[in-house]
């Protein structure tokens, strides 16, 4: 039998394209950032086969519900790769995951991540994870584990994709959702930081069609196109949870629901958290479209209906609150650095109302819920 260790034709894991030493180096570079998200509930520190989290405090709950969510960043990673900037994409990942959990009123407890790449470049992987860790700190959640997988032949050396999952908890009688929403409630919009992480297939197609380079300085944006496209997603989880705890407690909760505006746009995502028989009327004139959305519209001659079904158009999260708490909610959110405003109201839907047209949405993503009607024109 040939001694493989002395045979120059031997095939090794390294020659197959997987560098385990580079993976170990990446772990060393990211370790401190990950550990910075750990509180006393994280057990066993860094580097175990499984992340451990002490849930003893759930014993104080009357009826704890666990909430879970998983997501990725989508084709926004192509922008990060093209610009060779990787320490912000983590905010997009965390925002897409934890802000789905907070919609039901759940506190995100811990998160794990997964990175697949054609070639492990330790510094690049560490930048990605540092961004994830920084966003976890903003969200108040622990990053308890993850995996970096090297996939030579499946992904190009400079290509990667990221995904993550989070688990949270909410007391059963504090669960938010359509059953709490009432006629007379007020809709509050929270400004997005930009495109966030949805609709990049449309945006990239428009940019390529226009022949614009990422390095192009755009006066309307006040920076380069690439810098705008890579703007990190605003993470709302801590602000939403603060709102549920801050608003005066009456016979019923003041906050009745949240809607995370992601794929599908504002109307479709808001409709998911409304009960059948109610309609939210949202007034477009209560906010101006940020410059990037106008730019995409103009460069691609994109119809308004398509924009509204694809992009957040400046609204990243929505709160549905009782009318008597609306002013306090707006004031609180603004004081925490989240630009917010009253954008509409909820009412019983008239049986003879017109239920067609691009301005009208009823139910979405498999949820046969309430309806949303967009009215007016966006402010100049």
TrEMBL record:
What pathway is this protein said to act in by its record? Answer: Purine metabolism; IMP biosynthesis via de novo pathway; 5-amino-1-(5-phospho-D-ribosyl)imidazole from N(2)-formyl-N(1)-(5-phospho-D-ribosyl)glycinamide: step 2/2
Q: Which EC number applies?
A: 6.3.3.1
Q: Report domain PurM-like N-terminal positions.
A: 63-170
Location of the protein in the cell: Cytoplasm
Q: Give one GO term, molecular function aspect.
A: phosphoribosylformylglycinamidine cyclo-ligase activity
Catalytic activity, as annotated: 2-formamido-N(1)-(5-O-phospho-beta-D-ribosyl)acetamidine + ATP = 5-amino-1-(5-phospho-beta-D-ribosyl)imidazole + ADP + phosphate + H(+)
What GO cellular-component annotations does this UniProt entry give?
cytosol
Please name the CDD domains in this protein's record: PurM (cd02196)
Q: What PANTHER family has UniProt attached to this entry?
A: TRIFUNCTIONAL PURINE BIOSYNTHETIC PROTEIN ADENOSINE-3, TRIFUNCTIONAL PURINE BIOSYNTHETIC PROTEIN ADENOSINE-3-RELATED
Family per similarity comment: Belongs to the AIR synthase family.
For this entry, the protein name equals: Phosphoribosylformylglycinamidine cyclo-ligase
